[in-house]
């Protein structure tokens, strides 16, 4: 018993020194290999068997003493093992579901991208249809603007419509006739504006002077003033040249009055466009600039300058002659007895 106890103690000390279970086996092998006598080996073997039997008895006693705890531990371990197994199965199922969702999301993404592209295409088509509908109304609106002499609105509308017809709507075959019509109107639009510009530049301004002279003559005849007809005073008359020459008073660092006035000129559709002749001519020049016909306008003014000045002289002569004749008639009638 003492020997068995020593062997068990030696084996336990060996096991405590080394956590490896193979340490005990190595120690036994080393003890047996160093012993030359068979009796010693048998003795060692007996010690080992006795030590193992004692360990078995101790283990049985411990099992009997801690049976309840052991049973509970085994059941708990079994339950934990089952839960881990179930969790692994669930995780595997979740992974499979995630892969399936990923594939479905890819399909949905492609479908959503396709629908998004189709939505953009439909929106573009609707915009083109709205633009076509608006352009179809351009000839009628253009005629109304031209009739009311709102030339700047007409020019903007015409230029915008032609740019659309020759740009985004170029491939629309159903608009070919309208495209030719509006392009032709755009090519001839500047002729109308130039004629209006000449009318205000040469005729409208001189008519205002003649009208002022007639009013002065009428007043003088009412008061029976025998003094000669005063000369036409044009020094204070607002002309386009005087309107633009105010730019000479602008500072070098600031923009000229000519540029500022032309940029700030706007057309009021509620008012008579010809009420202010200077603003109306600014509108005409702005329209010609939008049509890119300024060189043609300058050339037309230069070509017609002499002819228009001769017409001014002719009309002025006629007005003066008519005024003098009428005044002479009035004086002759006043000197005759009733």
From TrEMBL:
All copies of domain Exocyst complex component Sec8 middle helical bundle, residue ranges: 273-322
Annotated Gene Ontology cellular component terms: exocyst; growth cone membrane; synapse
Q: Which residues form a coiled coil?
A: 45-97
> Is Transcription regulation found in the keyword set?
no
Q: GO biological process annotations for this chain's record?
A: chemical synaptic transmission; Golgi to plasma membrane transport; protein targeting to membrane; protein transport; vesicle docking involved in exocytosis; vesicle tethering involved in exocytosis
Checking Pfam families in the record gives: Sec8_C, Sec8_N
User: InterPro entries from the entry?
Assistant: Sec8/EXOC4, Sec8_exocyst_N, Sec8_M
Q: Where is this region: Disordered?
A: 1-20, 316-338
| Role played | Component of the exocyst complex involved in the docking of exocytic vesicles with fusion sites on the plasma membrane.
Family, similarity comment = Belongs to the SEC8 family.
Protein name, UniProt field: Exocyst complex component Sec8
Tell me what organism the protein belongs to: Corythaeola cristata (Great blue turaco)
Q: Which gene encodes it?
A: Exoc4
